[in-house]
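Researcher: I'm preparing a figure for a lab meeting and need a structural model of a single chain. I don't have an experimental structure, so a prediction will have to do for now. The sequence is pasted below. Please return the structure as tokens so I can convert it later.
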Amino acid sequence: HNMRTLHFIKNPEKRQRIARETMDIYAPLAERVGMYEYMREMQLLAFEQLEPEAYKTINDRLEQLRSKDGGQVDAIALAIKQALAEAGLKVEVSGREKHPYSIWRKMAERHVSFEQVTDIMAFRVVTEDEADCYRAMGVLHTTWQFLPGKFKDYISTPKSNGYRSLHTSLMYENSMRVEVQIRTREMHRLNEFGLAAHWAYKQGERPDGQVGWLRDLIEIVDASHDAEELLEHTRMAIYQDRIFAFTPKGALFQLPKGATPVDFAFAVHTKLGEATVGARINGRHVPLRTPLANGDVVEIIKGKEAEPQLSWLGFVVTGKARAAVRRAVRLRERAEVADMGRKLFSDIANRVPARIGKKAIGLAVERLGMEEEDDLYYDIGAGRIEDRAVMEALVPGCTADIPEMSERGQTSISIKGLTPGVGYTLATCCHPVPGDRIVGTRRSGERVEVHNIECHELATGLDTDWVDLSWGNRAAGAVGRLRVTLYDRPGTLAEMAGICAQNQCNVKSLNQTQLDHPFTTYELELEVQDLAHLNRVLSALRASDAVAQAERI
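Model: Understood. Here is the structure written out token by token.
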């Protein structure tokens, strides 16, 4: 017997067994190869046997709707076709009620009654070519209100079984929701009747990559010892790239193989994922990186102050989870940099000859072409904007009266040993500061480059002239460079900024150079008075619980 003749079998247990086998194996198998027409029929026939009361109740409700609304499906299909025809599109439109199993599954997944299932009718639009699919979508979205979040583009990103179509949900008259699928004739042939129809159409092509798992299924059939073993192994083969897990209330979620409780939490809801601090699988506490297995009941433990951790990127597998974690980490890092910039801004504001209030800050933000105050603080913290530019934006013209600002520290430095009239630059490879032992290198016609005597670059400049130098009496102010490794937790970047501010040094630039959980490494350029000042900052950083390592570079 097959499913269409199943009702002739008198033994109810045998009917149940065949129906369960069909629901567990043959319907998913049809879905996997894209044979949706056969999948729907098998699901409907199996559902009638497995849940006879639910089947009868839903069928009765559908019959009541038909008698109440008359030919509403045909009327909506005609309205869709007319709207598309007016736009110059040649299409075929058909409509149907969703079958009882599909409705029952929605009721179970959403925990709603029949009356609360709003999208009972589905319509299919078949176009001449792919471009017309998108044109038709545009016409429908401008003719009727569409439901945000319900649009799916399976044409540009087909399902793994080759299924291609556009899906959307529209709000029709009287707040009635209708589902619409838009596809070409070729897509329709493949979608409804599967890969076999596609191969026949393409005259013998065999896309082996799409059906390699079918060969594994054949091997399982040959190797299985008995029917029960075959049933179990076949289930595993069909779903080998997917797992199914449940919430404690019984809601079912499908995830890729290797998914973790964090992936599960984000699948349920983004806010749940963001608040995750722990998980229980089947009642047992587990690490968040634990892979889920089929049938697991997953309980997510939330925390009020919780937020996604960078380390999660090492084990989450779903695109939704990875995107949400990256976004949260970026926002947190931006907030910490802005917090550091806010502290540095106070020092800058104290150097202008005016009292700086909210109005002055707002005007400065406008003058700098920024949108909001936090953008200013972020740019200061990230070293994207010079102090001079901030001061000018706060009080236009104020830096003209501050001569030491003109060259950012170089005018306050004097160096002994230079020939009068010869210019110099402080080497950017070693960033010497007053107090370091220094030496100059010079090629003919060039400026003298001032290096720390211990700079490794000096070994490569043997063809240059060396100039014996020392700091003069006015040697005050230079740029020192540090490499600081922070523990990867909230607030550490702000604490580093606070240490710099407490030691009265300005952060000229800040760059993140390495991210290796649980550490984040930054390179800083600091404006300091001399070597002693730089060493004080370095000692303060090393003494901080936020800092794993700090060194001069």
